[in-house]
Amino acid sequence: MEGTDDEIDSGSDGSGAFLSASELDDSDSDAEQPLPHQKKRRFDGDDTLGLELVTATVLHGSGAAPAAISSAHIDASEEAEASLLQLEVGDLLREARPNLALETALLELVRTLAALLRALPAVEVAAEGSGAAAAVRGFLSDLAFHPVRPFMFHAPTRVQVVGSLALCAAVRPAPCLDLAVLIPACCLDSKDQLNHRYLAKRALYLAHIASQLEAHPQLGTLTWACLADDPRRPALLLHPPPGTSPAGFCIRLLPAAPPELCPLPKLGPARNNLRSAVSVPAPPPPEVLAAAAAAAAAATKAAAVAAAAAKAARGGRRARPVRGPNPAKQLQERKAAAAAAAKAAEVAAAKAAAAVPPPPQEPKQLATPHYNTSVLQDLLMLPLADACRSAAATCPHFAEAAALLRVWARQQQLSLGADGLTGTFLTLLLVHLLESGKASAAMPAMHLLRTALLALSAPKTFTPGLIMQWRQPGGGGGPAVPPPDVKAWRKAFEVVFVDGSGWLNLAAGVSKSVLAAARGAAARSLRLLSGGSPAAFDAVFLARQRQAALFDYWFHVKVPPTAAAPTAPAAAASGSGSQQLLSDQPGWRSQEARVEALATKALGSRARLVRVFRRTLGPEAQAQVQQQQQQQQAGAGTGGAAFQRGVPSPLQQHVLLGVQVDASAAVRGLDLGPSADKVEAAAAFRSFWGAKAELRRFQDGSIAEAVVWEGEAAQRHLIVDRMVSHILQRHLPPGASVVCHGGVLDAALHRKHSTPEKDVAAARLCEAAAERLGKRLRSLAADSLPLKIVAVQAAAPVLRHAAAFPPLPQLLAGAAADTLVGAHIARCLEPVELLCQLEGSGRWPDSPEAYEKMKAALGCQLAQQLHSTLGVDAAAAEGWVDVLSEGFAFRLLLVTERDAVMQGRAAQPGSGEVAGEDSPPMRTWLQGAVAGVAGHSPAFEGAVRLAKRWVGAHLLSPHLGQEAVELILAHCFTAGGTTDGTPTSSSAAPGGGPPALAAAQPPASRLSGFLRFLHLLAGHPWRVQPLLVDPSGELSAAQRDAITRQHARARAQGTAPALCLATPKDPGGGAWTSSRPSALVLPRIAVLAQRSAAALEALLLGGGASGGSAQASSAAAVNCDAAAAAAAEAAAAEAAAAATAAAVFSSDLAEYDVVIRLRSDALPSAANRLRLGPSGSAAAAVRPPLGPALQAANQQLAALAEAAAAAPGSKHSRSILKGIPQSILAARGRQVVRRELLVGFDPLPLYTAQLQQRLADLAVVCADHVGGTLLALKWRAAALAPAPLRPHTAHLSCPAGSPEAAPAEELLAARGKAGAAAAGGAAVRQGALSAAAVVPDVVGVLADALQLGEGLVASIQLQ
């Protein structure tokens, strides 16, 4: 990088950052030597501050839209579309970027601050003492900084604005103005890049500046922070006085290192500049040492025996003479035996020597690429800023493109965590594209953005390593040292993006997982923008993704602090210091990388993305800011408490791990390993999986290692949790704990007398029974019925994998005896509806009434034929035929091609379109669409069950139908593409859909799907925009636009439904939601969804109850052993999960005015009641105490309920709804008792509908049809105010001021004067009040509700 003129004068070496090969040799000594003092030249004005672009922007206006797009980039057919896009970009930039024309006071403050910094006098700063260094005392101690000479402070050589504001690319919220201060070379010594010396002196330099700025309180308040979440690089934050910056800028002082600090090659990725970063060979295990000692002893003994044998063989002085017939031969044999014994002694001695353990090896210094990067970032800060400013000066739309990139990364949640995509990374990527010719300086902002997104989405961009255009250093003596090659960079870092100097990796802090997430987000964004739809622009730039919903599985991994790593002798002798900083990266960064690597290897092809969110130091900085503010309020001044305690560390104890999975592969029960003949690979596989690995023979005859995850079908969604938990606990240090959240809400799907496994089995039995019944219906002889059944179509939620609770097999309906559950046999059966398509005929009557009677007659003949031919129990009604088969009750609905015509004739003028429940084509389309989504994604069934259970738990069943819930979930799983993530023909134009869903990967777990359902309910603009549900991609862009315009016209006319779900079969969007929810209830649904989503996100991300559990487990880990700590951690996590589930599904009854409690023994669905315990939520509504009139009303209602319970017919009505005892079944027989079964009778929905019909003008009725045991009423706003008498409500009214009106008047007074005034105004608008004004008779209204639910209602209570 070439040196600039205002950095170094003509007498300095312009190539101080680049040295020849002969100058690279380090001396053996690390002692500090003063750098030669060099005279610096200073300048004043905006040209040296780097505000040239800002000044030009202020002069020409900062809120102007980008320049017109050149005709060279678009043709005439795209001119209108380009103009609209230009307007959108202009509006977005005006909203996202602060108006620099209003920041004149801030810019003047920067000039004053720069002049003050340049005028600071030279002074000696002691590293130890109570002076300026006191602010960083702990920091210096953790760095083990022991200077050999006092630190001399000199005014900065150069003060320059860098970063996004200098480029006019700063974006809201909380923009920051970065002010770089160049440390003079005379403040540093040679070899200061070693062992934290430069970083310590850098902190001292900042501490002295902070102490000098404290004398100027008019400049603002001072705080400390960590730059780029690097604990080694503190930064000083200056918060201007209130009113100085309308956009809320803060000024961040960033020290920059002079080029004379050290040659750049000494900071290469393979160099070691931290002598404590060593690799000490681990000593042999004790068992190895014991075995070696035993072997050495055995070998020594064997050598001694062999030596004695050799001596005996050779003979001594007293050896017997050789005698016999052949003395020469005997002498030769004796010599041979002696030689063999000597050789055996030598072998034994060699074995003894080999058995002795080798001496320990010397420690080996490791490369410190991340530490070197911390120094290099300060060295190259100003050259990189100059490069960005040069690119912005040559490219007119560079600033707009850089701002758009920042907005895009923030909306896609790519800037989260310490490893996220920073603004510097994205800006320099634009610079690289311009320098390499892949982007042109004449391109508009959106074209530059597309080019950057193309680079991010292409796998080949960063996989081999990205290197910017290299700049030949100027001057110097001798040839320049070539930068490292790509292999060296890839060995040191996960992601490689090297700057123009060739020595700094701009992506050193970016993890591979973040790059993979950015690649997917960029590809989806490009696909959306290619469609050219206005909604696509909203999806990419305006809709912010929710972090908790982006990943399918979440884990909280708590890793105990690792023991201190062995240090080099020199480092150990130099002093203490923080054990976390002895290596290249802090200890917690190594833990995070280890967790991510283990999870990635374990999941393999199951996972699309595995990411550990690197913990930031933001919470620490916030705590320090608050502490400093308290000190300032107490008059203590800004003492710099931020780094007095030492190097900051993350306050978050656990590691946050998120996993995106493949929906089908996530529930796979087998992980296949290497073949048995691959010995080394099989051994590595067994070492990784431990006892889970086993050798198996497969059907094709192969033998291979495998891991089998056994379990019931209802628990297959927890396989990912089991895998990650097993691997992390196996390979992490003892005491590590893993908290999984895949089944945190499963308790809401449990019911009495059954288990999740039985529910899954019942659903599969029902599907098989329906399939067999359909075949039998189609096999009926043509001559047995007037019209043959040609097709049978499922129409029940259980047959499209969308039932909250599937029906259980019933003994009297033909189920096996072992399927009986509970002590009683259910009397009320849930029908499973089937649409039976009859063959065409021209002999149908033209009258709708006669047509329905004819179909009923056909139903009677069908029931008789089923009973006589197939031997099944069938009963015909006017609209259907009920069939009991294989334990289930099937309801057959006869369908012909004339149904639509007859429905149109029967409909009254002005009644609107036919409801979806009454339209066979609509029900057929719904069945196919929802079943298709469930077939693509196994997670859909669990998500829709949770969604329906949530709707019922919050008493919203009368207001949000189950078909609407299924359609919303189907959209969540297919928005922007199919369930496997591939784009559909219409996914590029998500008009009318939620933008955040269109730009995200489809969910692949029940938890992420349910969370997106809540986000959609809470965040979609239902009043102004329809939700286009198109799972199969049938709608074109033109059709979507037509639906949007049609909804706008209907909304203007007041005929649009409050919640519009437009489908290819229902462009109007009212088939399933025309009458519910109402415009009054819809905001309530959104509020409840927002509350539940916030509670669930707090658990998943670790910001809720899990924080307390982490502290509890930490205390247990201190006071107990590892087993007790793990048990405490598990108990705390289970308690937090239970509290969260209760908070998500529990309804706050204090928000309602009346609670009607029902008899659970009279409800067929009482076994589905939630049993989650108290939620412990602090946000529960608090109602004022009841007044005397309301207390008296409650007493009257209690007396009425007791009288109704004691009535003669009450017990009989309750017994009808109860189950059938076994004794009655044994006494009467199955054939007799089967006649008492009630198919399709559920008293709770019927009672709710009748009660809402009676109280339509007075209250809103809320209930849980899934498994509730109560109803709740909410009085309407104007229901309690005095109003003229109406004939249809006369029996529920009483004169105002009468004793019967006291409860209503007390309720009206409790609502406050504002509510009374509003209600009175509504009454005046209805007509002038007269002396005959009436109010509702509250006791009479509720007594009527009690009488309506005789035998079902247990009590009614006013609140």
Specify the overall morphology.
Answer: globular
Q: What distance separates the N and C termini? A: 75 Å
Computed Rg: 40 Å
Helix content: 40-55%
Beta-strand segment tally? 37
Question: In DSSP terms, counting alpha (H) and pi (I) runs of 4 or more, how many helices?
Answer: 43
* Order of the strands making up the biggest sheet: 4-5-9-8-7
Oligomer: single chain
> What is the mean pLDDT?
81
Largest sheet: 5 strands, mixed
Structural class computed from helices and strand pairing: alpha+beta
- What fraction of residues sit in β-strands? 5-15%
Low-confidence stretches: 1-28, 36-44, 62-77, 474-478, 563-576, 619-640, 977-993, 1104-1120, 1313-1330
Protein described:
- One of its GO terms (cellular component) is small-subunit processome.
- Its main location: nucleus.
- With 1359 residues, the chain is an alpha+beta fold.
- 43% of the residues lie in helices and 12% in strands.
- The protein contains 43 helices and 37 strands.
- The strands form 13 sheets. A five-stranded mixed sheet has the order 4-5-9-8-7, sandwiched between helices. The chain has a five-stranded mixed sheet with strand order 21-24-27-26-25, with helices on both faces.
- Helix 20 packs across helix 23 and helix 33 runs antiparallel to helix 35.
- The longest helix is centred in the N-terminal third of the chain and has 29 residues.
- The protein is globular and about 115 Å long.
- The N terminus is likely disordered.
